[in-house]
Design a protein that fits this description.
alpha/beta; TIM Barrel; 8-stranded parallel beta barrel; 12 helices; 49% helix; globular
Length: 373
């Protein structure tokens, strides 16, 4: 099965190591950044969500208008618009982009961040709401006749949407979360279940939890699995590690401003104990040691308070490719990667990393097919 590669685009050029000024939306940068990912051979790019950030559907629409093949994964928090409206919004965009849209469901891991958008439910209540929300969205995308829905959070009467996705049977749903509630809801609904980059043993534990939740939900086929990393490449191992330590030093120098921007921007509250289970798991891995398995490096997660995807894979392209293949060996089907020099790293990943992984996956698939023939 071919591996799927996902990058990530933003609306301005910055990262933890380079906190640039300028407008929140730099249209020229968005256009160039999306094209860089397309030219690099990424399958799709993630567009994140935060309470103060540009609307992801509109960012995707703009980027799609300036690319031809690249697909888009739009982060979306259930609860802030009606599920029927969300279904029509994404299906409409999918029609205009020729079937290049997927939706990444993020229920929300920070109570403070949720309240910025007026949401005062508890975490468990949010997951119950997400469950109902996705019940309705999926029906809206596929129902051939009007339907009604009566839940605790949503009541829909005689709804039908005439706008459908060009994808069959519907738009794909990606789902993030590392709590028991997340496994339960994501195991039921997700086409792809997204995890952050933990050591192999811990990642396998999470995959098993997702698969068990899917089985309990009555699914015959569990979700595909995505894992996220921040690869740091170098032409030699020594140069890769020198670069990694420069990135760590720059991140530590910028950390106070980085945390302040994340607070103001709604991307999480760095510097305090994170509420979400995914960040807690990354910090637990960092507490066990800096280096895990073949190339997984955790100090950057510790430096940022594990505010998002923040564990690195460090080494030559060959080393990092082998590390990614280790995850594929335990059941991962999708790799989400972004760099600390986002634009240039996307180009380098396309030149040096993606081809190595894809070639080896194709070789293995051909070998399996020959054996079964």
């Amino acid at each position: 099965m071919p591996v799927e590669f996902i990058g990530m685009i933003s609306t301005k050029d910055q990262s933890e190591t380079r906190l640039t000024a300028g407008p929140v939306i730099d249209t020229d940068y968005v256009r160039r950044f999306a094209r860089a990912h397309e030219d690099a051979g990424f399958d799709r790019v993630l567009i994140g969500y935060a309470s103060s950030q540009p609307d992801g559907a509109q960012v995707a629409a703009y980027a799609a208008a300036h690319t031809e093949r690249l697909s888009f994964l739009i982060a979306h928090r259930p609860g802030f618009v009606a599920p029927t409206l969300a279904a029509r919004t994404f299906a409409t965009l999918d029609q205009f982009t020729g079937g290049r849209i997927a939706v990444h469901i993020i229920t929300g891991g920070s109570d403070a961040e949720q309240r910025r958008d007026g949401d005062h439910l508890t975490k468990d209540e949010r997951y119950d709401r997400t469950d109902e929300y996705l019940d309705i969205v999926k029906q809206a995308w596929t129902a051939e006749e009007p339907f009604s829905y009566h839940g605790r959070h949503y009541q829909v009467e005689d709804f039908y949407s005439s706008v459908k996705s060009p994808q069959q049977p519907r738009i794909n749903l990606y789902f993030g979360g590392s709590s028991a509630a997340a496994y339960r809801v994501g195991g039921k609904h997700a086409d792809v279940y997204a995890l952050w980059g933990e050591p192999l043993a811990e990642t396998k534990e999470q995959i098993d939890s997702v698969n068990e939740a899917a089985k309990k939900a009555g699914r015959e086929t569990p979700p595909r699995i995505s894992v996220s990393f921040r690869p740091i490449l170098g032409p030699t191992e020594e140069l890769a590690w020198e670069r990694a330590h420069r990135i760590l030093e720059a991140t530590r120098e910028n950390i106070d401003e980085f945390r302040n921007r994340r607070r103001r921007g709604g991307w999480g509250i760095g510097g305090t104990e994170p509420e979400n289970r995914g960040s807690q798991r990354l910090l637990a891995a960092a507490a066990k040691g800096e280096l895990h398995d073949r190339a997984l490096w955790t100090p950057l997660a510790q430096a940022t308070g594990a505010a998002g995807n923040s564990t690195a894979l460090v080494g030559t392209p060959e080393t990092v490719a082998q590390a990614l293949l280790d995850y594929i060996d335990i059941g991962v089907t999708t790799i989400l990667i972004r760099g600390y020099d986002p634009y240039d790293d996307a180009i380098d990943y396309g030149r040096f990393l993606l081809p190595l992984v894809r070639e080896e996956v194709a070789r293995r698939d051909a070998e399996k097919q020959a054996v079964s023939a």
